[in-house]
Amino acid sequence: MVFFTCNICGESVKKPSVEKHYQTRCRGNEKNVSCMDCLKDFYGEEYVAHTKCISEAQKYANQSQSFVVKESRNKNAQKQESWMDIIRAILDSSEYNLTPALRTAFQRLQSVDNVPRKRAKFENFVGNCMRMPRQQATQVWDILEKELNKMKEAKQEQLAQAKAAREAAQNGKAEKKDEKEQLETDAPPKKKSKVAADAEVEAAPEESENTNSNDFDWTTQLSKIVSKQADGIYLEKLKKKLLKKYSKHVSVEELSEKQAKKFHKRFDKQLKLCATLRLDGDLVKSC
Predict the structure, then answer these.
(1) At 12, phi and psi to the nearest 5?
(2) Is the Cβ–Cβ distance between 1 and 50 less than 8 Å?
(3) Which of 37, 87, 174, 222 is found 20 to 30 A from 108 (Cα to Cα)?
(4) Across all residues in the chain, what is the average pLDDT?
(5) Locations of Low complexity compositional bias (predicted)?
(6) With contact defined as beta carbons under 8 Å apart, do 30 and 44 qualify?
């Protein structure tokens, strides 16, 4: 609560008691008070708007630059300040067409720091502490409630607009992402580098060779060549004849060094595995 010092008699006065003080103790004098916290002077009705003042810590922080004040987080004080904002908004508005009595009531409420925010408590407070008639207290509350609802609706509308703006921004980002993905899908394939293309060209014959070599019937071809020679066939001659058939099968005129090495290795292995043939010295004969 804000406290004032009367500049006429020097007495300390609470804000709600300033009016009474100048009607009794300093009667006939013009109101002249100073705030005990910020030491600011107020003349006439100026003190009414002084609803909140700096704390003692803030006062000494202004005098010493090395002293830092932590702002207090008093939720009740914040709510009370919002309540005062509503009262000031009503006084500044021309919507309510306040009668002189109602305007005086709201001006008196401005000088109080602990106005209740519930209907029953509010009516009891203004009736007991401010001697406000019951009917007038009800009228004041109805106006306060109307302004409060109006502010709530404005705040909800503001929150809804902010939410819609966020959703629109998120949808815009999602659409841009989808468009980018679609463009990447529809875009023509990138040209492959010469190294990658050459590697594919080199790999293609090798794959073809592996496929063809796997399909080559070694046992049948060996047996077929040897069966035409009643007395058998020399190993090297058999190898040369089979090499021609193998080259024709893999569609090359002459095997590469790698292909030839693979052929000789497979030839020796398949000859040993062939049950219908036998090796007699340098001759290969049918069993």
Answers:
(1) -85, 130
(2) no
(3) 37
(4) 78
(5) 157-172
(6) yes
Please give the structure tokens belonging to residue 120. Answer: 């029953």
* Percentage of the chain modeled with pLDDT above 90: 0
Name beta bridge partners: 285: 278
CB 63 within 8 A of CB 38: no
**Distance between CA 287 and CA 277 in Å, rounded?**
5
Neighbour count for residue 283 (Cβ, 10 Å): 16
Rg value, the chain, Cα: 52
Residue 6's pLDDT band, with cuts at 50, 70 and 90, is very high
The token pair at 258 is 């790698």
Cβ atoms of residues 72 and 56 within 8 Å: no
Instruction: Report residue 106 as tokens.
Output: 């709201």
Q: Indicate the DSSP class of residue 196.
A: H
Name the CATH topology of 3-63. Dna Ligase; domain 1 (3.30.1490)
Query: For residue range 60-93, what is the model confidence (pLDDT) as tens digits?
Result: 555 555 555 555 555 666 777 777 788 888 888 8
